[in-house]
Amino acid sequence: MTAQLGTALLAKYDINGPRYTSYPTAAQFTHQFGPDDFLAMAKQRRTDAPLSLYFHIPFCHSICYYCACNKIVTRDTDQAGTYLHYLDKEMHLLDTLGWQHRPVSQLHFGGGTPTFLSDEQLSGLMASIARHYTLLDDDQGEYSIELDPRTIDSKRLALLRKLGFNRVSLGIQDFDPQVQEAINRRQDFQLITEQMAAIRAMGFHSINFDLIYGLPFQNIKSVQHTLQQVLALSPDRISCYNYAHLPHRFKSQRSIDRQQLPSPEQKIALINTVIHTLTDAGYVFVGMDHFVKPDDSLAKALNDDKLQRNFQGYSLNLAEDMLSLGVSSISDFNHGYSQNYRQLADYYQALDQDQLPIEHGISLSDEDKLRRDIIQQICCHRFIDIARVERDYPLDFHQHFKAALSTLQPLAADGIVTIDALGIKVSDIGHHFLRHIAMAFDEHLGAELKPVSYSKAL
Ligand code: SF4
Known about the structure:
Blueprint: H1 7-12, H2 35-42, E1 51-57, E2 59-60, E3 72-73, H3 78-94, E4 103-111, H4 119-132, E5 134-135, E6 142-147, H5 154-163, E7 167-173, H6 177-183, H7 189-201, E8 206-213, H8 220-233, E9 237-242, H9 264-280, E10 284-287, E11 290-292, H10 297-301, E12 307-310, E13 313-316, E14 321-325, E15 330-333, E16 336-340, H11 344-352, E17 358-363, H12 366-381, E18 383-385, H13 386-392, H14 397-400, H15 402-413, E19 417-419, E20 423-426, H16 434-439, H17 445-448
Parallel strand pairs: 1-4, 1-14, 2-3, 4-5, 4-6, 6-7, 7-8, 8-9
Antiparallel strand pairs: 9-11, 10-11, 12-13, 15-16, 16-17, 18-20, 19-20
Helix pairs in contact: 3-4, 4-5, 8-9
Bound molecules: iron/sulfur cluster.
Residues 60, 63-64, 67, 69, 71, 111-113, 148, 171 line the site of iron/sulfur cluster.
C-alpha cells in the first residue's frame, strides 16, 4: 500500500489543518456558551446509556521542551491534593445530571502527568469516581491512563492494575539520547524494556506508545533506530505525532534551538520513514498518526461502525457521550461540546462559587451535525456513501456539497480519492491525507485556517 506514497506527494500536501478530534473544532467554541447551556445539552441525553469519562491531571514534575499540553510544572505535590478536592467538587455538582447509573464503558486519565499523583491520591480519586459513577468489570470497560515512564515502577503499575486500569499509554517520543537531551526528557531504552515486561506480566489489555517526529537532532538514521527499538518492544498501538515548533505560543519551546530541528523536507522524509517502517513491520495505518497491530480492536473496527474520532484520537465507539472533568477538559455530547476553564485559578473560582467550571463551548447546528457525520465517515470508514447521506438527511448530496466536490477534484487527480455515483472513496494512499479530505467539508475553515492555528496535516 505504501509503496506508491512518495515524498513529492507528501511535500505537495504539507499544509496546516485541524486534527478533527471534534467538528466544529475548538476554534469555533464561543463564550456565549456557559454552564446553563451545558446543563440543557446534557439533560437531553439518555441517563442509562454507556458513558465515557475523562479526567485531566495537569501537573508534571519537569518540563519537556516540545510540550504544547495544558500543564503545570511543579514539585509541590500539595497542589495535587488541592486539585483533587476541586475534582471531587466538580463530580458532586455533576450529580445533578443523574448520570450515576450510566455504565462507564470508557475511562481515561490524561494530562499533564496522571502519575504525578501519589498512590494514595490515585486510590482516593478512583474511589471517588466509583462513588459517583458506575464502573464496570475488567472485561467490559476500557480504562486507560497516560504514563510518564519516569514516574512509574512495578509497584505503581501493580497499583494501577488493581485500581482497574487495563490499558496504558507510554510517552516515549524518541529513544535517541541526544534527542532526549535536547527535549529535556531522559528515559532510556532499558527502563522502558523493564516496564513493558512488568505491564505485560500484570495483564494490561493494551499498550500504546506515543512517538514524535520533527524533534531536534532527528534524522532518518536515528528515527530508524528508534523505530527498531519500538518494534522490539512490540506495543499494540503506536501514535506518531508531528512536532509543531510554535515558540511564540508555547514558552517551553523557546528552549529548543531552531537550528537543531529537521528542515521541512527532512520532516517529510522522516514521516515517510515512519509510515514505511511501521507498515512494513505489519502495523495497520488507521489514519492521522495512528498505527495498530492487525489484531487490535481498532483495526477490526475500521470496517464496521465501531470506530470514532474524538479528543483522544481514534477509539472504539463504546459510549454515547464523553464527560470530561478537570481544568481545560472538553466534553463531547451529541448536540455540542463544552470546555472547562483552561486556567487553574478560573477553574477553582467557578467551583468555589458552586458553578460548573465551563469556560466556553458550542451547540451544534443541523449543518454542523451533518458535516461532523461526513468527516467521521472519512476519518473512520474512508468512504462517504452518498445514498446513505441522502437517506439520513433531506438534501441532494451533489448540490449541497458542490463546493466540497470541487475542492476534492485535485485530490482525485492525485489518486487520493475516487469520486463516482456511489460515493467518495479514500484510496490506499489517501489514508495518509484524511485531514485534507475532511478539510473540504469543513465550512468553518476558510476564516480559521492560519499557519499558527493548526498543526501540519501530515
Ligand atoms: S509532555 Fe507530558 S510530561 Fe512533558 S511537560 Fe508535557 S504534559 Fe508534562
